[in-house]
Amino acid sequence: MAAHPEARILIAEDEPKLATLLCDYLAASGYAASWIADGRTVVSAVRADPPDLIVLDLMLPYRDGLDICRELRTFTVVPLIMLTARVDEIDRLLGLELGADDYICKPFSPREVVARVKAILRRTSARSVPGGTLGLSIDAVGHMASFDGRPLDLTPVEFRLLKTLAASPGRVFSRAQLLDNLYSDYRVVTDRTVDSHIKNLRRKLQRPGTDHELIESVYGVGYRFNRCP
């Protein structure tokens, strides 16, 4: 049985045989997969009916995959895997900096795509936060979060920051790594911008009567997310 049998996957791919193959493999693993071939319709389709994960080809007709990714990240944090035949490092890094969660180069095995889908959905589940963090719930599709049953009033940047940290409890992120996940455009910001957002998040995640910090400072390195005791 699939780990997320209810998850809906949108495939944006202009090669019919490949798209059909991916749909078949995802369906066999318990996912509901749909397919779009025209790059111009991807954003509107996501706005109208948000999926749980997107598999996006970099070279779609009529609109470039990187451009699509850039626009998607202005309104959604839905997990996204980019597919491409380009193997040069510049495109690889650019895709991830724009907000892609993973990157797979063609040719690839459909089983590899299914495995990556499963791994990403485990990390970004809208129903629970990995690592057993009690009281915290993150809805990546609805762009909402709650703590101890209390909705968190987060800015888009704060939400992306919390989602990044909570997806990997115990992992130390440098300020530069966190900045890469905060902004989908090319604005120039300083490392201290992260400190300001962390301060706001800590205030919103504070439990009355306890001094336990969900987000811990690691001196000289950055920040990590702690499980609740």
Task: Summarize, please.
The protein has 229 residues and is an alpha/beta fold.
What does this structure look like?
The structure is a single chain. The protein has 229 residues and is of the alpha/beta class. Helices cover 36% and strands 20% of the residues. A five-stranded parallel sheet has the order 2-1-3-4-5, sandwiched between helices. The two termini are 31 Å apart. The N terminus is likely disordered.
Layout of secondary structure:
Blueprint: E1 8-12, H1 16-28, E2 32-36, H2 42-48, E3 53-57, H3 65-72, E4 80-84, H4 89-97, E5 102-105, H5 110-123, E6 136-139, E7 144-147, E8 150-151, H6 156-166, E9 172-174, H7 175-182, H8 192-204, E10 215-218, E11 222-225
Parallel strand pairs: 1-2, 1-3, 3-4, 4-5
Antiparallel strand pairs: 6-7, 7-8, 9-11, 10-11
Helix pairs in contact: 1-5, 6-8
Helical percent range?
25-40%
Count of spatially separate domains: 2
Total strand segments: 11
Question: What is the mean pLDDT?
Answer: 79
Strand order of the largest sheet: 2-1-3-4-5
> Can you tell me the CATH superfamily of the largest domain?
Response regulator
Structural class assignment = alpha/beta
CATH architecture assignment name of the largest domain: 3-Layer(aba) Sandwich
Broad shape: elongated
Q: Regions with pLDDT < 50 over 5+ consecutive residues?
A: 1-5, 126-133
CATH topology of the largest domain: Rossmann fold
H/I helix tally: 8
- Outline the biggest β-sheet: 5 strands, parallel
Distance between the termini: 31 Å
* Strand fraction: 15-25%
CATH level 1 class label of the largest domain? Alpha Beta
Rg over CA atoms, rounded to whole Å, is 18 Å
